[in-house]
Amino acid sequence: MTCSKNKIRCILQYIGDSWLGKPKHRVEGVIYRYNDATEDLERIKDVPTKAILAKIVGSWMNQLYYTIVDSKVL
Questions:
Q1: pTM over 0.85
Q2: How is the chain split into domains, by residue range?
Q3: For residue 2, what is the enclosing H or E element?
Q4: Could you tell me which residues come within 8 angstroms of residue 68 by beta carbon, excluding any fewer than 6 positions away?
Q5: Direct distance between the N- and C-terminal alpha carbons of the chain, in angstroms, rounded to an integer
Q6: Which residues make beta-bridge pairs with 13?
Q7: Per-residue pLDDT for 4 more than 90?
Q8: Do residues 54 and 69 touch, judged by C-beta distance below 8 A?
Q9: What's the CA gap between 42 and 63, in Å, rounded?
Q10: Strands of the 8-15 sheet, one edge to the other
Q11: C-alpha span between 26 and 40 (Å, rounded)
């Protein structure tokens, strides 16, 4: 998801479940401020740490939690 007005983008990644055990439906993600060099990133680990505004974790079936990394950036 991308907001071109504020130059903010979100990457969400589904974490696959194992064959054994209960499905967890885990999701991880980041919300980051992008520029021309980081506009086309597709993996969370490729996002520069300084650009990350918030992190998202949780289960897409239950609840998602977010953590704001640095409130001074906003």
A1: no
A2: 2-68
A3: strand 2-3
A4: 53, 54, 74
A5: 18
A6: 28
A7: no
A8: yes
A9: 23
A10: 2-3, 8-15, 26-33, 52-59, 64-68
A11: 24
Kindly report the length of the chain. 74
**DSSP code string of 9-74:** EEEEEEEPPPSSS----EEEEEEEE--TTTTT--SGGGS-GGGEEEEEEEETTS-EEEEES-TTT-
Q: What is the pLDDT of residues 25-73, one digit of tens each?
A: 899 999 999 998 888 889 999 999 999 999 999 998 899 999 999 755 4
**Structure-token match 């086309």, residue found:** 40
Residue 57's DSSP bridge partners are: 28, 65
- Rounded Cα distance between 71 and 52, Å, is 11
